[in-house]
Amino acid sequence: PEDVERLKRLQAEIHEGFKAWVRERRGRLLKADESLLFTGEFWTARRGLEYGLVDGFGELRATLQQRYGE
To answer: Which pTM does this prediction carry?
Structure first.
C-alpha cells in the first residue's frame, strides 16, 4: 500500500507538470474545458484539432519541408 501511494503521488506530480506544459504552449488555443482536456484520455487527431490540442493534420517530413524548406 505504501508503494502504491508513492506511485500515485509521483503520477499526480507528472500529470501536473504535463498540464502546466500544455497550458504554457497551447494556452489561448485550447478550445475545451480543462476538466475534459486533462482527464488522461486521448483522442483522434480530428478531436485534438477540435479541442485546440493540435494545429492541423500532416505528415512530419512534408510539414517540416513546408515550414523550413528542403
So the answer is: 0.73
| Residue-wise DSSP of 11-57 | HHHHHHHHHHHHHHHHGGG--S-HHHHTSS----HHHHHHHTS-S--
pLDDT tens figures, 13-29 = 999 999 999 999 999 99
- Measure the CA–CA gap between 34 and 17, rounded to whole angstroms: 14
Which grid coordinates belong to 23?
497550458
Alpha carbon of residue 55 to chain centroid: 12
Are 37 and 53 in contact by the 8 Å Cβ rule? The answer is: yes
